[in-house]
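Figure 6 in text form: structure in, sequence out.
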């Protein structure tokens, strides 16, 4: 048995240390560092079979793709699953695992090892030993965790002489745009809501004894604590490898708990670092209106909200590529795979970044222009309809039929173009636009007749095109917009009951069925429907509380119609405002170390100016609970307006990209306090 527990900079990637010196280029460093991690892993896969879990596979997709492994000598790449194993002639195995190696994950690893015959096993772990040991149930840090893990794997192996290594790499970040990333391994994290307080472990009292502001780490169930610790530990590991000390800020109660965890882990590390980096955590639940808005401006938001998801990925879509095939069928068999997906931008082609930061119509025109150029460069013939963007794009794509070289060279462009075609042909796009109009009407009616909003929603619910998820998204939007609608609670419950009663069981989301323990028989029970309606009503009416004092997502005026003000641009404005307005209490600087406490004590005798998030060369904005690409664009526009006099660069992150339907599930139906962390 052989144990190796190192971080990626130990693997001859010394150029990473050179990147740290020109700290002004950190936005590019985030992307390069993620790619460097995978390049380091790829150096270890020669002549090996690879078993990789879904989270790691999604990160790899945005950081070089599976070709990176094959180019470095990987023999085969398989899913990390109990149904997979190595062939008798495959001696070397590499396991790339983002989840804690405990519980179900450990069982899968054991199944693969026992059904194979490897002489050498390499475990690439996305979590460090401290987080791994906590996920395994050990409250204290088990310094021997990786050594004990290697001993287990060695005992499972059929061969008596087997070399086992365990290496930690922070493989949790997937860069999706120029200055934006997601962390797929933490896609299930969502801020604690008011209706979750009943489920917390509160000593000496029930949920009425505490508010969301009173939350602390050990109130949460074990699964939720593990997910918070995984998130904090991964960021700490990433910043450690960048040789940066983080200054931590939080907006929202759950973000504060997460920030405290990161601060505690940071203070346990006694290393001194040459640079500092700011990180600001923001609760998604502080601005649900932005998350459930059906934006007509963002093409990428529409793609993510309408097209089917890519299998086993959380931030991608499945794209029908059959238009490139010379043999066309009237019906695509479900057993046949024609699936493409969104791919990372390159220096030569920034499709996603353009689609995120520009209007939807401009993005479609950009795709059309890029296709025309590609067709001309390939010397292909096309049949253009200059007056119809959809038909023009389809005609340009068809021009590549029978030209495999051209398809391969322009694969990123063709996949994005076919995503646009699929979107424009999808009838759900019309429903999306209708919902966008309804949201504008809700704001308009808020200024004219607030009490009539629920009644208007009741009429909307009668429309044939509206499904239950659509109605729920409008209810969340309206509830966040209303200052008070307690008197309308009975009307709201009655409306939800009517919508549920006309909804087919097959049309319900899986999370909804799981939440209320439904089956086809119980779905026909009026008393069950009534109980579900009341529960949804209680949850929705509790969404309206605004916990911020300096910022408000709704602007009300006696002379102007109500205006929705997205939260994240407001946060940017307060941070980068040259007048330096007070950030507390909404934007809180989280301090837990001795030096921080000393500064706090000194503030009793003399004025101590608290740090601001923009005081550092780089600021990471991380939204806990998901972000829309419209919000990424809004942040970028706010930075153009307010950060002109600052040297701070902003990197935007979240655990996932979300659609209105995702938010409906997370807010109303998902059991967020008990996420499946496979341990």
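Output sequence:
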């Amino acid at each position: 048995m052989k144990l190796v527990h190192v971080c990626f900079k130990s693997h001859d990637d010394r150029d990473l240390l050179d990147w740290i010196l020109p700290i002004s280029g950190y936005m590019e460093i985030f992307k390069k560092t993620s790619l460097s991690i995978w390049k380091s892993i790829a150096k270890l896969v020669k002549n090996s079979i690879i078993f990789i879990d879904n989270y790691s596979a999604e990160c790899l997709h945005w950081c070089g793709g599976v070709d990176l492994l094959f180019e470095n000598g990987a023999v085969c790449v398989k899913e990390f699953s109990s149904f997979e194993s190595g062939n008798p002639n495959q001696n070397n195995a590499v396991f790339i695992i983002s989840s804690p190696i405990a519980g179900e994950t450990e069982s899968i690893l054991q199944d693969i090892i026992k059904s194979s015959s490897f002489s050498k096993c390499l475990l690439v772990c996305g979590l460090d030993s401290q987080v791994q040991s906590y996920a395994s149930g050990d409250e204290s840090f088990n310094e021997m965790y990786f050594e004990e893990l290697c001993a287990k794997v060695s005992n499972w192996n059929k061969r008596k002489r087997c070399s086992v290594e365990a290496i930690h790499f922070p493989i949790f970040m997937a860069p999706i745009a120029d200055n934006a990333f997601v962390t797929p391994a933490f896609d299930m994290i969502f801020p604690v809501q008011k209706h979750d307080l009943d489920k917390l472990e509160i000593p000496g009292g029930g949920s009425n004894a505490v508010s969301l502001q009173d939350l602390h780490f050990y109130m949460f169930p074990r699964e939720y604590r593990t997910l918070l610790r995984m998130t904090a530990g991964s960021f700490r590991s990433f910043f450690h490898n960048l040789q940066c000390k983080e200054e931590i800020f939080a907006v929202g109660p759950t973000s504060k708990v997460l920030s405290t965890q990161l601060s505690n882990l940071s203070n346990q590390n006694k290393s001194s670092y040459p640079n500092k980096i700011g990180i600001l955590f923001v609760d998604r639940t502080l601005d649900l209106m932005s998350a459930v808005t059906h934006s007509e401006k963002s093409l990428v938001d529409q793609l993510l909200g309408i097209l089917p998801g890519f299998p086993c990925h959380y931030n991608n879509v499945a794209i029908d590529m059959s238009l490139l095939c010379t043999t066309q069928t009237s019906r695509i068999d479900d057993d046949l795979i024609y699936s493409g997906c969104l791919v990372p931008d390159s220096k030569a082609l920034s499709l996603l970044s353009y689609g995120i930061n520009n209007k939807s119509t401009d993005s479609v025109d950009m795709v059309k222009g890029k296709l025309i150029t590609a067709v001309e460069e390939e010397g292909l013939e096309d049949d253009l309809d200059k007056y119809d963007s959809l038909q023009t794009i389809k005609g340009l794509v068809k021009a590549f039929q029978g030209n495999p070289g051209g398809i391969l060279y322009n694969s990123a462009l063709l996949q994005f173009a076919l995503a646009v075609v699929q979107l424009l042909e999808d009838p759900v796009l019309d429903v999306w636009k209708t919902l966008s109009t309804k949201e504008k009407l809700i704001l308009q009616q808020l200024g004219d007749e607030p009490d009539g909003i629920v009644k208007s929603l009741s009429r909307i619910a009668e429309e044939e095109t509206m499904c239950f998820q659509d109605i729920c998204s409008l209810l969340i939007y309206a509830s966040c917009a209303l200052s008070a609608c307690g008197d309308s609670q009975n009307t709201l419950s009655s409306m939800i009951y009517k919508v549920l009663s006309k909804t087919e069981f097959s049309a319900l989301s899986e999370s909804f069925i799981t939440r209320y323990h439904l089956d086809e028989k119980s779905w026909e029970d009026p008393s069950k429907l009534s109980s579900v309606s009341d529960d949804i009503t209680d949850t929705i009416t509790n969404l309206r509380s605004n916990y911020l004092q300096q910022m408000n997502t709704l602007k009300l005026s006696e002379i102007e119609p109500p205006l929705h003000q997205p939260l994240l641009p407001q946060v940017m404005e307060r941070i980068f405002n040259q007048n330096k307005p007070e950030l507390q209490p909404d934007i809180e600087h989280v301090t837990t170390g001795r030096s921080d406490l000393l500064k706090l004590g000194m503030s009793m005798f003399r004025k101590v100016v608290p740090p601001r998030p923009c005081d550092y060369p780089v600021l990471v904005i991380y939204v806990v609970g998901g972000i829309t690409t419209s919000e990424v664009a809004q942040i970028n526009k706010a930075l153009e307006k307010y950060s002109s006099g600052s040297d701070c660069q902003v990197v935007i992150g979240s655990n996932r990209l979300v659609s209105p339907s995702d938010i409906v599930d997370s807010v109303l139906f998902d059991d967020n306090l008990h996420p499946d962390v496979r341990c």
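Caption detail: The first strand starts at residue 49 and ends at 52.
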